[in-house]
Amino acid sequence: MADVMVGYANGYADQVERDFDQFVAACPSGSLEARTDADMAADFRV
Hints:
- It is a single chain.
- The protein is 74% helix and 0% strand.
- It is mainly α.
- It is elongated and about 50 Å long.
């Protein structure tokens, strides 16, 4: 069981790293809008 969990965790970590690399590349290219914390909070102000 431990080996299965370690394998899953390693695979998950690898996927997170790939996702982050895509995110970092998408922000400056303009294909993804990056917002600040203040922008996000403004959506919830009443």
